[in-house]
Amino acid sequence: MPLSIHRATPADLDSLLLLMRHMQQDDAWDTPFDQPAVRTSLLNLLQNSLYGIVYLVRDEKSPLAYLAICFDFSLEYRGKGAWIDELFVE
Asked: Which domain holds residue 13?
């Protein structure tokens, strides 16, 4: 089965939410999975490249993995930085 890796867009929102729910079930967050709140935050990230980028891995049938990279700005490190916020592989 061929895999595709692409930068996620708002069209990928439901696929990403499915994977995020699976990740939360596997490694529970401190707070319950609040899908409406997560949807709002994720959509904000997907629509604003200044905040970060998300990559989605899928096969022909379903989403398999995602990587969320978020940006910040640091005076100590003299500029923009990036960190892996979430990485999940089904």
From this structure: 4-89
